[in-house]
Amino acid sequence: MIDKILRDSLTRGWVVTIIYYKDGKITKRNIEVKAVSGDRVMAYCHLRGGIRMFSLKNIFAADYCRKMAN
Question: How many distinct helices (H) and strands (E) make up the chain?
Answer without folding.
Answer: 1, 5
